[in-house]
Amino acid sequence: MRRAFPLALAVLGSLLIVGSVGSGLLGNAVVNPAALSLPDQIARLKRAQYITGRAAAVEFSNMHGEQFPVTSGAVAIYGTDKQITIWVAGTPVDFLAPQLVDAMHRRIAEGRSPFTEVDTFHDRGRTVYVLTGMGQKHYYFRSKNLVIWLASEPAVANEAIGQILEEYP
User: Which of 6, 36, 42, 43 has its CA 20 to 30 A from that of 157?
Assistant: First the structure.
């Protein structure tokens, strides 16, 4: 028993140090989100606008009116007439991404958004939600620690989501 107490204190101290360092690193990652790369083309449409990192995280917050634990991000618009927009937000851990997708699904289901869910399908063990709204077809899903939302003109939507599901398995 005499040896167990100092050992337990040493383990507890080590856990506190690791937790403090991890919390500091996570806090820094949320304050300064990293850039994510996005494809140069989607559905044969070239990327016209592109923001990453902190600027993308600010856009996510402005769209939703709240902060998210985003550690990386990117937003891009494709085509000369803004035919496709993609938002990709990275979370600090894989298990948080499906929770954020579920929260988005619940809020949209409340019926106070400009989107109407029209379908869902499964791809590689994840649910892909399909919506309409604002003259576009929308898809959102998770890929590992990423939350992805794709908005597309209906004419190129099937090609665009097929490419994005391959890009983000």
Answer: 36
Mean pLDDT of the chain: 85
- State whether 26 and 77 are in the same domain: no
Task: Tell me: do 97 and 23 sit in the same domain.
Answer: no
Q: State how far the Cα of 32 lies from the Cα of 136, in Å rounded to an integer.
A: 32
Q: What does the alpha-carbon distance between residue 17 and residue 31 come to, in Å, rounded to a whole number?
A: 21
Q: Which of 54, 86, 90 is nearest to 71 (CA)?
A: 90
Q: How are beta strands 146-152 and 72-78 bridged, if at all? A: unpaired
* Six token digits for residue 163: 């490419």
Which residue range is the domain that position 71 belongs to? 33-167
75 and 126 fall within a common domain:
yes
Residues 74 and 134 in one domain: yes
Structure confidence by residue, pLDDT tens digits, 48-97: 999 999 999 888 877 755 566 789 999 999 999 999 999 999 999 889 99
User: CA-to-CA distance for 60 and 51, rounded, in angstroms?
Assistant: 11
